[in-house]
Design brief:
mainly beta; 7% helix; 48% strand; globular; disordered N terminus
């Protein structure tokens, strides 16, 4: 049995003990207090402004999903709760858990999420600690969560650099000193056209003394696969025979994927746990250390190839991804006089390892160079004996993220007419990046030096640092009118060093050709620094010394990404900057139960480094938000109706794309203007509970997007082309998004029976901002059309169940009508437009849930 299997068995045994051990449960009080946040019908306490306030009194756009709501909707991961947040969209890069890039309010330019690319524009927090990482969000398992807060619009004053467009906060339930209690949940499900899955989850709250309590959570989940890897072949050019049109004949090599054919190819297993210890040092001071561990193992592909068939692919190499993280946090909260003092420190260590099929690259380039014999005729894919080999590739990748953050803040009494929140923040995050593009059997002299069989290698170390001082002050001009002013002074410092590219045959002083399998004379080892500070290609041309400096990043053959300094050697390339963001807010309560507010705020995202020396560094971009909103509590508290309208100006937005030779480039584009509206409603009338939310987003470029940076945005000059006309919609985010749920509960004897329906709608969106690249003869390249648009879709979920005093039982059906909703589209390389993949919503899923409190 695998280690995952052992963990699953142990957790299932603990859960079954909870369900089947009434004697143990009797040790708890007869009516244990629920470990939940207030119901959606009462006041919801949020900490969006870094103070505890009721949701209806916070004068910014905040949506909160409480424990009750999360349980009712059976939410356990990011894609499920994102569906309920009207302002949130995301790009599922590859589709596997933990690879989503999050966007809010249309602040999205697309891109490929490259490790060396832009930092995220949406911050993600686990309690007090930031867990935002580049290349994909931390997909925290949702269980025993007090609430999820979605803060729309720039949160640059209180949350900083990666909260340019908004912030998502996952707030866990904290240890409770009052008494011992717990809960356990089991689920089994079956996916249409797929396999069986399920989950086992449990929580226990243990008071250890009158001043100390421990809360422990454990979980295991298996998501069934539903995409099939079906039999297929690929044929490649032989390099010598051509047809009447001058294109190669596919007579070189035929390969099949028989060894990897599998039904329900894309299953995922998730296991982990969380623990928090609360210690009351005295009546004023509390220390809360926390730790969370999660291990996610995904197999197969989460995007299907519509050219092959519905929910089908043809892939030729092993595909898997393992994503592990441990997050340790420490929060110290207390009072000095009547001021609240908070310290929040955290350390995140996240490792992922993956294997991906890259056969589409070989197929695309074989077709691209068909007139010169395909890959066999254009490249040098040969073994040590000089024989042409199978050109297919496999990518082995890994990341090692480390993030350390510290925040210290103080807050004056919230009861005072003038009140302040102020503090300091420091964060250091690093990533060790490894990407190994392998062609099995490739000759040593054609491979990356020291890495036989590797066509291309990326071995880099990235560091992003943030420093900030922040503060917000509020003043009650009258008992019903309040003004708030906030600011954040920041400094960012980002660096990148290492190696990327092809190898270089060292024979005859690196002058032997072919230099590598791609025949490249400039990229890779050719650009590495020699001991006298010159790059190898220049040293070869000048007849100078070709002795290379040792690699600055372990595992690389040498260093070509860096700056040479006499006496220091190669140091990282750096990008740094500083500035100020702000927020102005005026809120008014004309009558009881009505809050009106206006906000002007500004957020930012740091600039950074392009790996290619011929592509300039990209600058920070800024988002300015103007917003009017209302929060109303009507019908004696039964109805909450909140809404906002806004305009956002996004200055010189960062966007990334796969450029020449599938090489990621990050540029600053033109300005964009985003206008939109959001509405959220909750109604509780007796046995009926109804909630609905929706958003409208109109996001467009204001000037032309050029192929090459052009400050005039006319896209003129040598080699420049128009990629998207002014007025082009920004990608990924639909114009309309909405969701609604209704739940009706009736008493049945000593129990309560309920029925629930949930409907979600998402409009269409472009998958790439580059709508058309115009040349002298018209459109010559259209990435958005090549990938295809994201089609609109609607899903419906239904559930029926019965609740007893300590137990509940539920039958559910998710995506009841088996809608093939499109979450994202992607392709494996910049020239791989022959096979765009679609990441779908999970097909129809039927299951059963069991729950107990003890």
């Amino acid at each position: 049995m695998s280690s995952f299997g052992y963990r699953a068995a142990i957790l299932a045994l603990l859960s079954s003990t909870a369900f089947g051990a009434p004697a143990f449960a009797q040790s708890a009080p007869p009516e244990p207090a629920p470990a939940t946040a207030p119901t959606d019908g009462g006041d919801i306490i949020v900490t969006a402004t870094k103070r505890s306030e009721t949701l209806q009194n916070v004068p910014i756009s905040v949506q909160a999903l409480t424990t009750k709501k999360l349980d009712e909707l059976n939410i356990s991961n990011f894609s499920q709760y994102a569906q309920q947040l009207p302002s949130v969209s995301f790009q599922a890069l590859g589709g596997t858990p933990g690879t989503n890039v999050i966007y809010m309010r249309g602040v999205a330019s697309g891109g490929d999420g490259n490790h060396s690319g832009s930092l995220p524009s949406v911050g993600v927090y686990l309690d007090e600690q930031p867990v935002t990482t580049i290349g994909g969000n931390l997909d925290v398992h949702i269980y025993d969560i007090a609430r999820i807060e979605s803060l729309s619009g720039p949160q640059g004053t209180l949350y900083g650099a990666s909260s340019e467009a908004g912030t998502i906060r996952i707030i866990t339930n904290q240890p409770d000193l009052s008494h011992f209690y717990g809960r356990a949940d089991l689920e089994g499900n079956k996916v249409s056209k797929g396999g069986f899955g399920g989950k086992a989850e449990g929580m226990v709250n243990i008071p250890l003394s009158p001043s100390m309590a421990l809360r422990v959570v454990g979980f295991y989940q298996r998501d069934a696969g539903y995409i099939d890897n079906v039999p297929g072949t690929r044929r490649f050019c032989g390099g010598t025979n051509f047809d009447a049109n001058g294109n190669c004949v596919k007579d070189g090599l035929t390969v099949n994927n028989n060894a990897f054919v599998k039904k329900d190819y894309n299953d995922t297993e998730i296991a982990g746990g969380r623990a928090a210890l609360k210690v009351d040092l005295d009546s004023n001071w509390t220390v809360t250390p926390t730790v969370m561990y999660q291990d996610t193992r995904s197999h197969g592909a989460y995007g299907y190839d519509p050219k092959v068939g519905d929910l089908q692919v043809q892939h030729f190499y092993p595909e898997y991804r393992r994503d592990r993280f441990i997050q340790a946090g420490l929060t110290i909260a207390g009072k000095i006089g009547n001021w609240d003092v908070t310290y929040a420190g955290a350390y995140l260590d996240r490792k992922d390892f993956s294997s991906s099929d890259y056969t589409d690259y070989a197929e695309a380039y074989d077709n691209l160079y068909a007139s010169v014999g395909g890959i066999a005729g254009y490249f040098y894919f040969k073994d040590n004996a000089g024989k042409t080999i199978d050109p297919r590739q496999r990518v082995i990748g890994s990341d090692h993220f480390k993030k350390m953050s510290q925040e210290f803040r103080v807050a004056s009494p919230s009861s005072e007419r003038f009140r302040v929140v102020a503090g300091a923040f420091y964060q250091r995050q690093s990533n060790d990046i490894h990407q190994d593009y392998q062609v099995p059997g490739l000759a040593d002299t054609l491979s990356v030096n020291g890495h036989p069989g590797t066509l291309w290698l990326t071995q880099q170390h990235r560091v992003d640092k943030d420093y900030a001082m922040f503060g917000e002050a509020s003043y009650d001009i009258t008992p019903r009118l309040t003004a708030t002013v906030g600011g954040r002074a920041f400094i960012y410092d980002n660096s990148l060093i290492g190696f990327f590219g092809f190898g270089r045959d060292p024979a005859n002083g690196y002058s032997t050709t072919p230099y590598n399998a791609a025949g490249s004379s400039r990229t890779g080892v050719a650009g590495c620094f020699t001991t006298n500070g010159t790059r190898l290609r220049d040293a070869v041309a000048a007849g100078g010394s070709t002795t290379l400096l040792p690699a600055a990043v372990a595992g690389g053959p040498c260093t070509n990404l860096g700056v040479y300094r006499v006496g220091e050697g190669v140091v990282p390339v750096q990008a740094s900057g500083q500035g100020v963001t702000y927020r102005f807010n005026l809120s008014w309560k004309p009558v009881e139960g009505v809050l009106l507010y206006g906000t002007a705020s500004r957020g930012f995202r740091p600039g950074g480094i392009n790996r290619r020396a011929d592509v300039a560094a990209y600058a920070a971009d800024y988002l300015t938000n103007y917003e009017l909103g209302a929060k109303t509590t009507l019908l004696g508290g039964a109805l909450r109706l909140n809404g906002a309208i806004y305009q956002q100006d996004w200055d010189k937005f960062q966007f990334s794309f796969l450029g020449a030779n599938s090489f990621t480039e990050i540029h600053n584009g033109p300005n964009a203007r985003i206008r939109g509206a959001e509405i959220i409603a909750n109604l509780n009338v007796g046995a009926l509970s109804v909630s609905a939310s929706g958003s409208y987003t109109d996001a467009k470029t204001r000037k032309n997007l050029c192929l090459i940076d052009d400050p005039t945005f006319t896209c003129t000059g040598a080699g420049n082309l128009l990629s998207a006309k002014a007025g082009t919609r920004l990608p990924i985010t639909p114009k309309f998004k909405a969701s609604g749920s209704a739940r009706y509960t009736v008493p049945v004897g000593a129990a309560k029976a309920y029925g629930q329906a949930v409907v979600s709608y998402q409009g269409s969106a472009a998958s790439d901002i580059r709508s058309a690249t115009f040349g002298p003869g018209g459109i010559i390249f259209n990435p958005a059309a090549q990938l295809g648009p994201l089609s609109a879709f609607t899903t419906a979920d239904f559930a029926v169940g019965v609740q007893f005093q300590r137990y509940s039982f539920e039958l559910f059906i998710q995506n009841a009508f088996d809608t093939r909703g499109q979450l994202s589209r992607f392709q494996e390389c910049g020239s791989c437009g022959q096979r765009p993949y679609i990441v779908p919503v999970t097909p129809q899923t039927i299951g059963v849930r069991l729950h107990t409190d003890f």
